[in-house]
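Appendix B, Record 12. Input sequence as logged:
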Amino acid sequence: MKVVIALGGNALLKRGEPLESEVQRLNVARAVAAVATIARTHKVIVTHGNGPQVGLLAMQAESFPGVRPYPLDMLGAESEGMIGYLIEQELRSLLPGRHIVTLLTQTEVSRNDAAFSHPSKPIGPGFAQQEAEHLAGARNWKIAQDGAKWRRVVPSPEPLRILELPAIKLLVDVGVLVVCAGGGGIPVTVSPSGAVRGVEAVIDKDLAAALLAHQVGADALLLLTDVGSAYANWKQTDARPIHETSPAELRAHTFAPGSMRPKVEAACRFVENGGSLAGIGLIEDAAAILLGQRGTIVRRPESTLDFTRGSGLTLS
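Logged structural output:
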């Protein structure tokens, strides 16, 4: 089976943790252990979030007087390399002899996407409201509340096409474990003549993962994060986890924008476009989600693919 595994940026760098390299390395090691379990018996493609990391790089870029800050597309490329390096290194330790590559990936968006006029994607660390407002004024940021904190928000246009898709398919077909489309991919526009240019935006990792999974013909898409499942009536007294569901049933619920809503939308899109299974849940539950035992499992009612049959995948 072919499985796309999307690792959430907040799961690789948990909320409230210091934005330090060793913290990220420890979290990546924990995440990759779950990925390796699946990769031993299935073809795996890994993608990941980059919201905390690209926000930190943006703040670092603004700390040099006399140098214009690097644009978000270049910072996205930096984060793809940095996070991919950590993931690839840990995978090589757990899967000796396996060919593993990190592929710098560009994702096409439309220059006319309405998201450019309505920034909504949180990046970087959270701040108290007063500090966030001060930074917004000093650095010309747009900010929005994210839980108890305030964060910078940037445009998040719809992913249309992954430019490196043919290369990804070739690598997967010959047995290479590919880490790609990190942070949703580097946002670019493509002119009628084929000229490629980066744009000031961050693509939603979950929607890009759904696009990637569909276009590579994956059987399953796992959206792994720091919560155990999607919840109906989240934060209400009658909140309950959603386990087995269909896209139509899942779309009947309301989910928080910027957190669970993109994951739900990604899961629904993948299954509606022919995917057999989409799962949402904790990184450490990855194998159990694939087996339909944990998390939120989204399938088409007529789907009959069984990931437990003949896969050799077991839980310890």
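The chain has ten helices and 17 strands.
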